[in-house]
Design a protein that fits this description.
The structure holds two protein chains of two kinds.
Chain A: H1 2-9, H2 23-26, H3 32-41, E1 47-48, H4 60-71, H5 84-98, E2 108-111, H6 113-125, E3 131-136, H7 141-148, E4 152-157, H8 168-171, E5 179-185, H9 197-209, E6 213-217, E7 242-247, E8 260-263, H10 266-279, H11 285-297, H12 299-322, E9 335-336, H13 347-358, E10 360-361, E11 363-364, E12 376-379, H14 384-401
Parallel strand pairs in A: 1-10, 3-4, 3-5, 5-6, 6-7
Antiparallel strand pairs in A: 2-8, 7-8, 9-12, 11-12
Chain B: H1 2-10, H2 16-23, H3 27-40, E1 60-68, H4 77-84, E2 89-94, E3 101-107, H5 110-121, E4 127-134, E5 140-141, E6 144-145
Antiparallel strand pairs in B: 1-3, 1-4, 2-3, 5-6
Helix pairs in contact in B: 2-3
């Protein structure tokens, strides 16, 4: 009876039901990429530079190892933290590549992609209203993960003049009593920017001065060209303040496997594992088996792919600058982030018209935050032939639109 | 420098300008490296991998195991040369194991290959025995897989 009255009294929804969706989710803007995806999917023969994943298939030996594990019947749950062998291999890998040492028994958690790692981090550390500082432009999930965990994202604009690397001096004025952590991602999606050790050290000093955590999203760490990657937790005194997030998707071309990890001191891994054990239980066993193989024998494949990306990167950067879309030299990930300001269009307009008129898909910079306006993200994880053809078409488009 | 050759090995049509962009050394330098390599035989030849089956062309290939009695002072080289000089021989390798030479031969039909083996190869002095394996299907050659390339499985736009 009461229910009937309630439904009748609520004119908001067309079905006559009340709105069952939580306020937080209701108010939440959908990903700016979504709309673009729908548009692109509806068209044929599009060359897409809008993809955020490798064009390589997972190396065969990794796929073969996973298949073998299925044949052998490894289809059960693993420990919540992930297979010990995988954590041990990972500890060895982190030590070897970044000179950081984590105890595989207590300081590493295997997650369902870095996406889960980010979400777990936010849920583990945030009280309602607490703030996390993030760069703008940023990976699309950063603000979402913070808001869904009850926190508040505070944006620090990063600019082209600084090669899109976040600066400690821009972070400091935005620190308040509510600030809990600084979230940085490098090499960065969407810009391809890297952050050098000197600036990372400045950020580390801020973390100490204001007693903050640093969440370091280093999923693209292996995709870095002619410069060195510095792992944040390798900085002096930072291991205890860093939540290091990484994964297999980009370096081993394993996006669909959904496997990543969090490495941090025990005080952070324990509460995260608590959430993980209730919400995810464990990462798929098959993916964990594949990841062990990747760590044990995947190095030459990583090097092969990195070399290939680097060649494509050079071609794309050169061509972008030639056709009149100035682009800073991105040194990591597989993105170029050219400015489209000379065309006089917004990034969304640019992307939409480029798609309709020349059938090339790029992602408008505005999808990654306000400061992404005036830029578009072009991914070079596609064949050289595709890159050359796409840039040819973009050149034609830009010449036509020239004021 | 090695990178220049790696790129050319994959795509003989890559221009010095393209290679220059890809590896970040000046085009004039790339040109010089290539010229030098062509001269000194580092670059042996520019060839194309063709899937003849697509044109419906009938070709017969065979891999022949050849056992040889080596010659004093000359080892296998003299007899190997006598064999690889035949135009029917596409590739020839000295191998370890139960036989000595692995010879890949090509012919227009089976008869052509069998007459090569019975009339030319097997009667050669020092050739002790041959085992001929006709190729039934080629899956992969020179690092290239012979099947329609995998269709694109990626979504058009991803974060």
């Amino acid at each position: 009876m009461l229910e009937t009255q309630h439904i009748a009294a609520n004119p908001e929804t067309s079905s006559g039901q009340r709105n069952f969706i939580s306020q937080k989710v209701n108010d939440f803007p959908p990903s700016g990429i979504r709309k673009f995806f729908d548009l692109t999917a509806s068209m044929k023969e599009v060359i897409s530079l809008g993809i955020g994943e490798p064009d390589f298939v997972t190396p065969w030996h990794i796929r073969e190892a996973a298949t073998y594990s299925l044949e052998k019947g490894y289809t059960m749950y693993t420990s919540n933290s992930g297979l010990l062998e995988l954590r041990q291999e990972l500890a060895r890998y982190l030590e070897l590549h970044y000179g950081v040492s984590y105890n595989p028994e207590s300081e590493i958690l295997i997650t369902v992609g870095t996406s889960e790692g980010l979400d777990l981090t936010m849920r583990a550390i945030l009280n309602p209203g607490e703030e996390i500082i993030i760069p703008d432009p940023h990976y699309v999930a950063y603000p979402a993960d913070i808001i869904l965990a009850g926190g508040v994202p505070i944006f620090v604009p990063v600019s082209e003049e600084n090669n899109f690397a976040i600066k400690a001096s821009d972070i400091e004025p935005r620190i308040t009593k509510q600030t809990k952590a600084i979230l940085i991602g490098y090499p960065a999606n969407p810009t391809g920017a890297v952050i050098f050790k000197s600036e990372l050290n400045n950020i580390a000093r801020l973390a100490e001065k204001y007693d903050l955590l640093v969440i370091s999203d280093e999923i693209y760490a292996r995709l870095i060209y002619s410069v060195e990657h510095t792992c944040f937790s390798s900085l002096l005194g930072m291991k205890e303040r860093t939540i290091l997030i990484g994964g297999f998707s980009k370096s081993y071309a394993m996006t669909g496997w959904r496997i990543g990890y969090v490495a941090a001191s025990r005080q952070f891994i324990q509460p995260m594992t608590k959430i993980h054990q209730y919400t995810m239980l464990c990462c798929p066993t098959m993916a964990q088996m594949a990841a062990i193989e990747a760590l044990k024998r995947g190095e030459s494949e990583v090097e092969r792919m990195v070399q290939e990306y680097d060649r494509r990167r050079r071609v794309m950067l050169k061509r972008l600058n030639e056709i009149g879309l100035p682009c800073f030299e991105s040194k990591g990930a597989f993105y170029a982030f050219p400015s489209i300001k000379t065309t006089g269009m917004t990034s969304e307009e640019f992307a939409e018209r480029l798609l309709k008129e020349e059938k090339v898909a790029v992602v408008p910079g505005s999808a990654f935050g306000q400061c992404g306006e005036g830029f578009v993200r072009c991914c070079y994880a596609t064949s050289l032939a595709n890159i050359e053809e796409a840039l040819e078409r973009m050149g034609r488009f830009v010449r036509r639109k020239a004021p | 420098m090695e990178q220049v050759f790696e790129i050319l090995e994959q795509n003989a049509k890559a221009s010095p300008e393209q290679i220059s962009t890809m590896v970040g050394i000046p085009a004039s330098e790339v040109e010089k490296i290539i010229k030098q390599a062509e001269k000194d035989g580092t670059i042996v030849k520019y060839k194309t991998t063709i899937n003849w089956a697509k044109l419906g062309k009938e070709e017969v290939w065979a891999l022949i195991e050849v056992k040889i009695a080596p010659q004093r002072d000359l080892g296998f080289d003299a007899i190997a040369e006598r064999i690889y000089q035949f135009p029917q021989v596409y590739s020839a390798y000295l191998v370890s194991g139960t036989y000595d030479l692995a010879v890949l031969v090509k012919g227009r039909n089976m008869r052509e290959i069998s007459s090569f083996v019975t009339e030319k190869l097997a009667p050669l002095e020092r050739v002790q025995s041959t085992v001929t394996h006709f190729l039934l299907k080629r899956y992969k050659e020179n690092g290239e897989i012979f099947q329609p390339s995998l269709e694109n499985k990626r979504l058009a736009i991803t974060p």
